[in-house]
Specification:
Two copies of one chain form a homodimer.
Chain A: E1 3-8, E2 12-17, E3 20-22, E4 28-30, E5 34-39, E6 51-59, H1 61-74, H2 88-106, E7 119-127, E8 133-137, E9 143-145, E10 152-156, H3 162-168, H4 175-192, E11 200-206, E12 214-218, H5 223-241
Antiparallel strand pairs in A: 1-2, 1-10, 2-11, 3-4, 5-6, 6-7, 7-8, 8-9, 11-12
Amino acid sequence: MTYCVAMRLAEGLVFASDSRTNAGFDKISTFRKMHFFRQPGTGSESQGGERELVILSAGNLATSQSVISLLEKRCGTDQANLLDTPSMFESAELVGQTMREVIQRDKPEGKDSRVDFSCSMILGGQIRGESPRLFNIYTEGNFIEATRETPYFQIGESKYGKPILDRIMNFETPLERAYQCALISFDSTMKSNLSVGMPLDVAIYRNDALKPCTFEQVDEHNDYFHQLRAQWHQGIQTLFNELDPPTIC
Amino acid sequence: MTYCVAMRLAEGLVFASDSRTNAGFDKISTFRKMHFFRQPGTGSESQGGERELVILSAGNLATSQSVISLLEKRCGTDQANLLDTPSMFESAELVGQTMREVIQRDKPEGKDSRVDFSCSMILGGQIRGESPRLFNIYTEGNFIEATRETPYFQIGESKYGKPILDRIMNFETPLERAYQCALISFDSTMKSNLSVGMPLDVAIYRNDALKPCTFEQVDEHNDYFHQLRAQWHQGIQTLFNELDPPTIC
């Protein structure tokens, strides 16, 4: 299983993903689910680059790895590729098309397979000349875009970590708050589902930076995550203990 | 959809269920999912009755209604019935057996049906001479029992409301605290899933009471629930805002 969340906020974008994959309880591996496509600038460093794109992937690992490999392999060639798309919208189209291509390649023709070849992806980022945008791309290759009213997307094991996002997040949430909220959402998910596991990849992109995201890999030894989860857990206990008592009992 | 939760704690049992059923977004109805089987005492009122049993149901409504109807119809007859079982264990066996009977009756023989006839149930309560016990009965009719280490069961749409239970509940949690925790768990679930809805049924059984549970129907006009959800929501915001800031951004 997998859990990924991405947010498009007033100040920029936040991405987070776990790194556990499993095919049964005794076939557990670590695979990164966060992938970057970036075009360094040709001018001075202060001008930044031309694009910064992030893809998060969930679902069948063979499918999602092939999609990422094909997208990477085509960069810098004459084929349509993610370093050459004129807009984020066309980047989402290209990712969706590549997902269809891989699933069609692998799925046995004309008969039902017991294997689920589906995958889903989140694509976010910025291309010079456009505002940052964020897309949720379904296994069918079609997609939806995040808006001010619905500023975040989740893929994979999304339910355990959704209530805290719903209570805290909105478009105006500052990036560092969104980062904290994403970590708490992962903490709740990892407590309930063994198939979502550390290390976590977190990337933060500030509007118009057009340079590599601030990236952090949060593993078991990350002091801030330990402190945050302890503070949250203790805070929830205290909050609960201070609730007005019910009259029923 | 449905969400039900039940807990077996040091002081007694807590049951809670929503009342929304749906077959598509425009076919929404209200059906109770909490059912009581009780045997009034023959002695004085202070002695209490002989048994108090509660069943929560989720899954196919035609299946679960038939199961409850059959269990009710057989009470007071010569057939094995829930007012006559010598123990909670045999009560769970009887419920499981009745579930198998109904599913076998309805499921087209020898061919796969597109309809999902499955249901699941939680049975809890006390029969004089035994301690209170709590069982989670699967659609196959087999079941597991709650223990000190795993004091609660959920059926139906369980994921959104699980993190708060995991953070708060343990075997020693007092009944009124468990009641509050169940309500918060429902609040989180109803925020995220439209197919779980009010009114909620809540029943509280104190060890060895052997009389009807304290029962409450929590609807949109319930002042305590309004106050609790507002206090919780506000408390979560405050707790979140007081977290130590991260160093990443």
